Amino acid sequence: TLYHDVADLPDTSFDFIVIGGGTAGNVVANRLTENPKYNVLVLEAGLSNEGVLPAIVPFLGSSLPNSLYDWNYSTTAQTGLNGRAIPYPRGCLLGGSSSINYMVYSRGSSDDWDQYAEVTGDSGWSWDHVQQYFQKNERWSSPPDNHSTVGEYDPRVHSKSGINAVTLSGFPQGIDERLIKTTQELSEDFPFNLDINGGTPLGIGWGQSTIDSHGQRSSSATSYLGPQFINRTNLHVLIKAQVSRLIQTALNPPTFKSVEFIQGGTGELQVVSATKEIILSAGSIGSPHILLNSGIGDRQALIDIGIQPIVHLPDVGQNLSDQATIGVYWEVNSTDTFDTISRNSTLAGEVLEEWLDDRSGRFVSSVLGNILGWVRLPLDNPVLEGKVDPAPGSNSPHYEILPLNGLAPLPLPPTGNFLSLVSALLSPLSRGSVKLSSDDPFAAPLIDPGFLNNTQDLYMMREGVKILLKLVSAPVWDNYIVGLYGPAAVLANATDVEVEEYVRELASTIFHPLGSASMSARGAQHGVVDPDLTVKGVAGLRIVDGSVLPRPPSANPQAAVYVIAERASDFIKTAWA
Ligand SMILES: Cc1cc2nc3c(=O)[nH]c(=O)nc-3n(C[C@H](O)[C@H](O)[C@H](O)COP(=O)(O)OP(=O)(O)OC[C@H]3O[C@@H](n4cnc5c(N)ncnc54)[C@H](O)[C@@H]3O)c2cc1C
Fold first, then answer.
1. N or C: which end of the chain has fewer CB within 10 A?
2. Which atom of ligand 1 has the smallest separation from the CA of 21?
3. Where does FAD bind (predicted)?
């Protein structure tokens, strides 16, 4: 049941309370309420996703950051980015960031998961063992345009029995064929990969997205809180409920089974309690923020800001990682790019009509291209020579290449058509933090992703730019590309130092903060949660969201977050069986 008003809740005590109805939280709420004996409350700060057109129509998703459905955070001034502070979107509605993201579905490499297993000492996080959770999550769907998908994916590594729809592109784009041709012309650097989600992602292949066969976004809200689930009488979802802190309910071991929040903007503090567990799923910014507000964190830092420390857990909010991006832009000799739609609102209206009429046309997919690349820098490149490989193994890419058939995110000039290629640094060495800005639990925290603080990341980004330039050196782009555009013009014959300056001036986020409440082995002195996601030194509290990943996967992380949440649901069910 979906509630808009706290006064309508049937009770103030539940078996489980999930904080954050986002990507992970809704999975846990769904799986726990499979058992009719469990009453579950979800507290979500944002609004409902129902009827929010930009959260439904894939192409319009890019209008959600910096809106009423975003927390509208900014980072602190980033030294590695020449002092720039950048916008830092996080979904603030049911479905969380899965309702506002770019919908890329990528599972990472087998190395990623095997390394999570190794650093946590829990073989249950290994690639082989988590396959069952990818399967529980994924509902492989035919693409919206029903085109033949033979040769675009490997059916053997997909599941039709899960809850969250995943599909291939439903609308061809002008650059598709050129990208595929590049895999033939430059097959050594950019080989074709039939399926980037089989554990060995290296190469260029067809992208997979969390979009259903009707060309609509599949988020954790549309899937795990879909009509067949939200009406369960034991599932209670309260929106506009912003949690300030957890309240200690027993001393030894420290136990936190009550939650304080405000609802509906009244400013009045409410309290609800769980008899079994609290599951913190407020995401990589929200979860450490709530822990710190609750007195769980570094003792001295809490005292300094005026909060009574209860549990000394120094790593809360530390180890924040994100994958920096850098784009290169070209003017092209074609009118078949989305710039035509971006520039002409009449045309955009017609394309929306097409989507509304029968779920067809350009709007069935996101602004991203239909094809993605996953590339490694050779270990004998001077940037890596003699260094520890930042990637978790030899089947793991260092870069994701995101082609866009148009100009983004730069402002669009009145004329011209464009190609954008974006490179994301998948395994950054830089780390940052989430810290309190004041003792007011409703004040935004200080978010410092530490972009390019480690100079090796800067050098890796520089090499990433060169990889993008190399990609378009394939003959197939010869008659297509007119020239480097805008700020990218400096890249023609640029020195390494000039490319590095370009990176510092223009690099941004791919919106993947992770790791701020990291998992570590049981008994380890570092980390925030044990491999079963229970908070170290605390009873009755688990963290289930992207914040627990000790390092980013070599991928966009939503698939990993779904896997974490599916496995966590099994942990919780087993613990209370
Ligand atoms: C613009 C953008 C594009 C992205 N593109 C992709 C992509 O293409 N592919 C991909 O794999 N990943 C992408 N990501 C990243 C991915 O979406 C996230 O990593 C993932 O969804 C995080 O899941 P989560 O459960 O950790 O957090 P979230 O999904 O963010 O959920 C946290 C929830 O908790 C709620 N919350 C927070 N604080 C409180 C509080 N105090 N009280 C109550 N509720 C609270 C939030 O409102 C939110 O609903 C993108 C992210 C963004 C923002």
1. C
2. 49
3. 101-104, 243, 546, 557-558
Question: 532-569 burial, b if ≥16 CB within 10 A, otherwise e?
Answer: bbbbbebebbbbbbbbbbbbbbbbbbbbbbbbbbbbbb
CB-based contact 336:488 (threshold 8 Å): no
Does ligand 1 lie within 6 Å of residue 21's CB atom?
yes
User: In sequence order, what DSSP letters do the residues of 28-88 get, joined into one string?
Assistant: HHHHHTTSTT--EEEE-SSB--TT-GGGTSGGGGGG-TTSTTB--EEPPPBGGGTTB--EE
Give the residue from 134, 34, 3, 41 showing the smallest Cα distance to 560.
134
**For the whole model, what pTM was predicted?**
0.98
How confident is residue 260, by pLDDT bands cut at 50, 70 and 90? very high
105 vs 113: CA distance, rounded Å: 16
CB 394 within 8 A of CB 384: no
To which H or E segment does residue 220 belong? helix 220-223
Q: Tell me how crowded residue 180 is: count the other CB atoms within 10 A of its CB.
A: 17
Nearest to 286 by CA among 320, 249, 322: 320
Which atom of ligand 1 is the closest one to the Cα of 561? 23
Q: Has residue 250 got a pLDDT over 90?
A: yes
Q: How far is the CA of 61 from the centre of ligand 1 (A)?
A: 14
Is 546 labelled as part of a ligand binding site?
yes
At 233, the amino acid letter reads T
Mean of pLDDT over the chain? 98
Amino acid at 544: V
Q: How far is the CA of 474 from the centre of ligand 1 (A)?
A: 37
Give the position of tokens 């599932």: 235
Choose which residue among 287, 374, 558 to substitute to test ligand 1 binding: the one with the highest number of ligand atoms within 8 A of its C-beta.
558
Q: Which atom of ligand 1 is nearest to the CA of 555?
A: 11
Query: And the tokens for 500?
Result: 């590095």
What is the DSSP pairing of strand 446-448 with strand 296-297? Answer: unpaired
Percent residues over pLDDT 70 in the chain: 100
With a 6 Å cutoff on the Cβ, whether 46 touches ligand 1 is yes
